[in-house]
Amino acid sequence: MASDYKVVGKSLPRFDAMGKVTGRAIYGTDFALPGMLHGKLCRSTVPHARIRALRLDKARQMPGVRAIVTAADVPCARYGSFIKDMEVFALDTVRHVGQPIAGVVARSAAEAEAAAAAIEIEYETLPAVFDVEVALQANAPLVHPDLLGYQAMPTVLRQGNVSNQSLLSVGDIEAGFAASDHIFTNRFTTNMVHPGYTEPRAAVAQWDRDGRFTVWSNTQLPFEAQSTLAEILKVPAAQVRVICTVIGGGFGGKLRLGVEHYVAVMAKACGRPVKMVTTTEEEMATAYSRQPVVIELKTGVSRDGRILAKQGRIIVDTGATSGSGVGVGSSSALILAGPYRIPNISIEGLAVYTNKAPTGSFRAPSGPQANFAVESQMDIIAAGIGLDPLEFRLRNILRDGDTAPNGQVVAKVSLEECLRKAADAIGWSQRRDGNGRGKGLACGWWTTTSGSSGVYVKINPEGKVVMNTGCAEIGTGALTGAAQVLAEALGVKLDDIDIVSADSTATPFDHGAQGSRTAFAVGNACINAVEKLRQQIFQAAAPKLGVPAEGLSLVDGVVSGGDKSITLAEIAKALQLSGGGLIAHGTFIAPPTPYDPKRGRNLVITTLNSPSFHAHAVDVSVDQETGEIQINDYVVAQDVGFAINPLYIEGQIEGGVMQGIGQALSEEIVYRDGHVANANLTDYKMPTAMDAPRVRSILVECPSEVGPFGAKGVGEPPVIEPPAALANAVAAAACRVSDLPITAEKVVRHMAMAS
Amino acid sequence: MASDYKVVGKSLPRFDAMGKVTGRAIYGTDFALPGMLHGKLCRSTVPHARIRALRLDKARQMPGVRAIVTAADVPCARYGSFIKDMEVFALDTVRHVGQPIAGVVARSAAEAEAAAAAIEIEYETLPAVFDVEVALQANAPLVHPDLLGYQAMPTVLRQGNVSNQSLLSVGDIEAGFAASDHIFTNRFTTNMVHPGYTEPRAAVAQWDRDGRFTVWSNTQLPFEAQSTLAEILKVPAAQVRVICTVIGGGFGGKLRLGVEHYVAVMAKACGRPVKMVTTTEEEMATAYSRQPVVIELKTGVSRDGRILAKQGRIIVDTGATSGSGVGVGSSSALILAGPYRIPNISIEGLAVYTNKAPTGSFRAPSGPQANFAVESQMDIIAAGIGLDPLEFRLRNILRDGDTAPNGQVVAKVSLEECLRKAADAIGWSQRRDGNGRGKGLACGWWTTTSGSSGVYVKINPEGKVVMNTGCAEIGTGALTGAAQVLAEALGVKLDDIDIVSADSTATPFDHGAQGSRTAFAVGNACINAVEKLRQQIFQAAAPKLGVPAEGLSLVDGVVSGGDKSITLAEIAKALQLSGGGLIAHGTFIAPPTPYDPKRGRNLVITTLNSPSFHAHAVDVSVDQETGEIQINDYVVAQDVGFAINPLYIEGQIEGGVMQGIGQALSEEIVYRDGHVANANLTDYKMPTAMDAPRVRSILVECPSEVGPFGAKGVGEPPVIEPPAALANAVAAAACRVSDLPITAEKVVRHMAMAS
């Protein structure tokens, strides 16, 4: 069937490629307005303190300074997604090093920075907490003593330093353990890692008319930025316009406001456009990194390798604000249960405050952390009961028609296919583990995030088509994918599609470039618009061709019926001259995935929609003296539903695996006494091109019933399994390491302990 | 009925008012991009010559110069609307003083201007022609010797210096004269006048990606600019994006390319954004002024004052390019025939080249010129046969069901009402003409220009609505009118409407802000979109309220049924969360107005759609010594169909009357030997606020069957009748002047001749 397609299923170049490779693309960091001033932040230098005095006089006298803003300039006290615990500028207490206290606007960024450094702050130090397990103790310092007084979503359960406590509960956990032949209890910890987008956060704000302003930024979510800015500045959302620039990577790190609110407040204060760009140091020390977690898992299995009970607890270190940590604590439960048949489950998720920087929704939030624990333990159990890890998984995985841990029924489960294909490709059956070489497997499942998409589509008189979407292209290629869906559905070439995107006023609402949903949801909205366009086109063509509308087809931009034909361009031109133009709107929202609400408590993420399944397999060598890990081969078998554009999906897989390898082996934001000790790209060890192994992608196509042409979300999954797959391979080669990252130093230490 | 409306029919403030009065609006002249360079043109200093040599070396060495462009940088040789007789830069011959020969890009406008002046040009002078009647002579110098070789629309009839010769022909003209009791033959001439917009032409171009570029400009027609730029640069239209800035007036003078093509060519040449703004001198000497005309009219009437035959000829001086002159020659026929019952008509229109600057489609193109002749002659005839001018008109005007000269049948003709109301208001029946005081009347009809309009409409979750239209707001208030139509149709407040407009890529096609069509056509497209939105809204509300969709109403942003209600904001929010968003598209094109093609030859304007009727009445005093004319009172009775926003319509009427007074009494671009002698606002005498009389507007509402809520086009008509009305009043007070403008000097001369 796929071979009949002309545009989808093809590795066509991205619409944004030319601008990016030629340097002509205008990124957020490039964007400038005439008469623009520059902003910098004055940030806390202590992890927890009351602000006794804030003296701005000296800073105000510094050269080039135009305005200084503080909490007094911000109408809204606190904002936030699940719990309103974020402050634009510290109100009276700082809760982490790097927390913004004031902002300076000056002629140049250097002048603003110098003035920000001249702001004098008198602190009254408060006891701080940096460890989530300490934070859970009864007498721990409280990061937010007034937490219960903050506004929050009704489902969150707050107490002490806990911003939410969720529970996934299935069957009878005690009975499950009682029936088990073997019980395994393990503890895993993961690292804080940065999304590592190439382009830092950047935004320019300008107040246009009385009470209206525009922000140009590299945000992933212009509509969320719009509504949050409206909340912060206490203006109706319609008075805020957010327009996305070209975006140099997001990975979830640009979902929430970064600098947009600062430039908005600054531009209002000085009456001029203001720009802000974060530095690498600010990024590494204060941006939305992936939450480090502590996971304890207790799993009971039968003698023949069936999982009978799984009890777990994940403690998510959200830093000083809860952010998406509430959701991560909740969705972790679905990942910790895993894509397995388990009759008895009890998994608790805790999101916990510490006096560290706010964390965020890094690509597949909760995925790599939880999967590292589950899939490491699967190998530990397999070894413990003497089963091949692949075989052990195959005995327990979800299959067609099974009920998943949350009560959703899964169909068309491709997990066995993914596992077998990855295992075959890595040479699983011929492997010789141990003595410095080993192979590891890990598998998982993930969601295609739901949410509204609307599009406007117009066909110009020369037959070119404009897709107008509220979704941003964040560098994944997914809007090219949506355009391919549009082109295929309409019967035109991809080159015929032009894209207007991500402007909160000019484009229709879109839930945005997040959660692997862009090509899926925007593509489906396009299909809806095409239904309307085809009607108009055929109705206009029918009298011209003397063929009834039902007898017409549209292929390659040509409407044909019988032996007669007319180009789409001619129809579009005729309709512009005689019919008001050829335009349509389309909308889409995925139907809700049924689940069993009785199985959860305070879960804010409850289902995995159009779930994808995937398996990673890796072959490593471990230097027995230095502990250095070399990746010999890496295979990903991922169920993409339908590969709209194999090339960009492979790009997503290769990039995701590299990010996963970074988290697995080298990256870590290191805190010492509340300060980031390695806030630069020399000491924070992101893998470079030299560290990149060959990654082989196997695209499994088990169609979604909802996605366009059967496609599923593909962007997040590749980052999920690398830590577990690598941990399992390293365990096979040398030793088990259960705290990320698996550095050479740790490997040496563990090998020494084991020998 | 009108009193039931909540938004239309009200004098609500314009959406663009705040930005304009606070100075925050970004006009074309304000628009700037970082790294922008500036362009200036080197223009011909002679009216007709071959270019023997063009030496750029000295100019290239001038400080700050970055690029110099000439015809060699322009892919397309010639372009144009009816006839492709326009050259971006002179190819080898210059045909008027001020014709662009080369463009200079430099760091500053001053440097560019200095370098442009340093370009050395060697001319071989050719004989020139500046008078249309001379241009028609057999041995006249030819402005375009290769005219027949140019591409042109098939309907134009070219020969010598004539770019089109059209004929409106009804009945038997000779028989009509034979049956007449009196025959009047008169000659009228009109002046070349400038649209006089406050903001000069301004544009910035930037080449974005390979082969794609964007132009920000104050053009009235972004889509026409897009297609013309594509033609000139020989790229597909989809590679050209034109975005309108705020526009400081247009009046038709910004319909055609002004500086957009120059900045596009310059920006391509230098690889940087380039801006150009015209100077007052360039505007007055080279921009699209109203065509001066020579009109001869021969009219036969019966003893009892019925017009039996009208023969006429209008010679339109188009300057060196035909531009819209072809259309003016043609539409003049409909205006020269007038809104009268005439059984025998023969009116010839000639568009003629001269070696003067290109002319253009100034507000109601052909209207003031032709109306001046018709309505002056109506008074001359009335005096000749001893009838009251009002009575003479009433005996001849079109009435309901009449067939107009072009064969279109007119319904709901409000002309008698307009004439009587204007006459009553000016005190016609009690007038005492002569001895330095007199009253004059003039009436006419005009079209509501047709053409496509498409809109996208979205309703945000806070209930605010965005209207996305390809039409620009050029300062008339008409987009506010369209927004009022949208608000009324949808059942929300005008404040709830936000407007995105005039971007050739991001907004749907619109025929544009021209021909009094904006509120009419965009408003109707909005009504079409609202039909779709209301369906969606009621379908979503029905289950929530437990009331069937048919039983629901939407008023003031609240959906009600029975005693239950829900806000539009709630519905929009619910649909965004659960239904893909609340968006729709709407299109409109006016149904064609039937006419009789046998009555015309080479007519390119054939009908007056949703015609408006109007009468102006004025009371003047003429100083018997100095000839100075003082306007004591001015009344306009205009059939607007339905007054969507009385305030902005009155603004249109007052502004139009002022422009008409300028043409009638003082304005004239004076040519001496092919050079404009008064290319500045000191010597070109535009009326100032001190010259403005009180203008009283009487809005007659005789609904159009097509327009939104019955509205008709209102923007152009007010400029049509002032010259004739004033000429008739001055004739009643002192003397008849048949060549515009009616300056004090001419009045004194005519009074002397008459005495």
Rg of chain A: 27 Å
Order of strands across the main sheet of chain A? 3-5-1-12-9-10-11
For the largest beta-sheet of chain A, the strand count, sense and barrel status come to:
7 strands, mixed
Q: Largest contact between protein chains? A: A-B, 50 and 52 residues
Q: What's the overall average pLDDT of chain A, rounded?
A: 96
* Percent of residues in β-strands of chain A: 25-35%
Give a structural overview.
The structure is a homodimer of 755-residue chains. The first copy, chain A, is of the alpha+beta class and 755 residues long. In chain A, 28% of the residues lie in helices and 25% in strands. Chain A is built from 18 helices and 31 strands. The longest helix of chain A has 28 residues, at 518-545. The interface between A and B is large, with 50 and 52 residues.
Features:
homodimer; 755 residues; alpha+beta; seven-stranded mixed sheet; 18 helices; 28% helix; 25% strand
What is this entry, summarized?
With 755 residues, chain A is α+β, with helices and mostly antiparallel strands.
Helices and strands in order, then pairings?
Two copies of one chain form a homodimer.
Chain A: H1 17-22, E1 37-43, E2 49-55, H2 57-60, E3 65-69, E4 93-94, E5 100-106, H3 109-117, E6 120-125, H4 132-135, E7 162-170, H5 173-179, E8 182-189, E9 202-209, E10 212-217, H6 222-233, E11 240-244, H7 260-270, E12 274-277, H8 280-286, E13 289-290, E14 293-301, E15 307-319, H9 325-337, E16 344-353, E17 359-360, H10 367-385, H11 389-396, H12 415-426, E18 437-446, E19 453-459, E20 465-469, H13 478-490, E21 497-501, H14 518-545, E22 553-555, E23 558-561, E24 564-567, H15 568-578, E25 582-588, E26 600-601, E27 612-622, E28 629-639, H16 646-666, E29 671-672, E30 675-676, E31 695-700, H17 722-733, H18 744-754
Helix pairs in contact in A: 6-7, 9-10, 10-17, 13-14, 16-17
